[in-house]
Automatic annotation (TrEMBL):
Domain of life: Bacteria
Name of the protein this chain belongs to: NAD-dependent epimerase/dehydratase family protein
InterPro entries the UniProt entry points to: Epimerase_deHydtase, NAD(P)-bd_dom_sf
Species, as recorded: Kitasatospora misakiensis
Domain NAD-dependent epimerase/dehydratase intervals: 5-205
């Protein structure tokens, strides 16, 4: 049994902490308010991860530091750098393997499958930020100051998923209401199940193959937005979904600060997005949860509240 620190108790951090604890590992879950799931293997601690000294004390002796924390989406640019600096500093000081939860923003627009070895070519502020955070961590790894890795996911599905689709489409489809969505509704799109994200983070933290490179979460499906909506409606016994494509610029006029931040990421939704996870499946041994099970969980989640 080893000891791990997980920062952030949102859906992914909670799933990751529980998966580690249920595997017999000891977990220290760090959040600003000390929140998180009740489990005998999980110690919940209230602390600010931007405070490198405080975080270092909490990480001392840990085998890994897994970050699932992030600032509110519309405050990424100002608040993510100090968070990332605190995490990397704690990893450098303690020797804990640093596992970052990332996404595909840093690749920029790509025609064809996304692989982990593609160069960073961001065209957005948030993509530039994500690429810079990984570059800083990788530089520390190559200099021998830390062991780092990044697990990259696409749009989330599952219980508690926080994604544009989960926010805009899922509730409307389950309620039988029409919805406008800023995407090519029929383009293939990789979807990341929260449980598979947690499984990939844990595999990276527990293995020795992960350090110094990035990994893609295996996709539960590459179905289009329209097809996913249809599958959700069918599972819920809801009417055939009525989806309409909307220009991403309309989000900026919505008056919602978070939705307004999505406009620059429109390229992720106006073309096929396929995440190649061959490396993860072959070297980390993680495979995707069947799409049918993810659909059933997503449909059941609102009803379980």
């Amino acid at each position: 049994m080893s000891f791990h620190v997980v920062t952030g108790a949102g859906p992914t951090g909670t799933a990751t902490a529980l998966r580690l604890a249920e595997a017999g590992e000891r977990v220290r879950l760090v959040t600003r308010r000390g929140t998180g799931p009740a489990h005998p293997g999980i110690e919940r601690i209230a602390a600010d991860a931007t405070d490198a000294d405080a975080l270092t004390a909490l990480v001392e002796g840990a085998a890994s530091l897994v970050n699932c924390a992030a600032p509110p989406y519309h405050r990424w640019i100002g608040e993510f750098p100090p968070l990332a600096a605190g995490l990397l500093t704690a990893a450098e000081r303690t020797g804990a393997g640093y596992v970052m939860l990332g996404n595909v923003y840093g690749y920029g627009p790509v025609d064809g499958p996304l692989t982990e070895d593609l160069p960073a070519a961001p065209t957005s502020r948030k993509g530039t930020l994500r690429a810079a955070l990984w570059a800083d961590a990788l530089a520390a790894h190559r200099a021998g100051r830390a062991r780092v890795t990044e697990v990259r996911a696409s749009d989330f599905l599952g219980r508690g998923a926080t994604s544009l689709f989960a926010f805009m489409v899922v509730p409307a489809v389950l309620a039988g209401e029409p919805v406008d969505y800023p995407a090519d509704l029929d383009a293939p799109h990789s979807w990341s199940y929260l449980g598979d994200v947690a499984a990939t983070l844990v595999a990276a933290a527990l293995g020795e193959a992960a350090w110094g490179r990035a990994w893609h979460v295996p996709s539960t499906s590459e179905a289009s937005t329209r097809e996913v909506a249809r599958r959700l409606a069918a599972a819920a016994g809801a009417p055939e979904p009525l989806l309409t494509a909307m220009p991403p610029a309309e989000l900026a006029r919505s008056g919602d600060a978070v939705l307004a931040e999505v406009e620059e990421m429109g390229y992720l939704y106006d073309r096929p997005l396929r995440l190649d996870s061959t490396r993860t499946e072959e070297l980390l041994g993680v495979t995707a949860t069947p799409f049918e099970a993810v659909v059933e969980e997503t449909v059941a989640a609102p009803r379980a509240v």
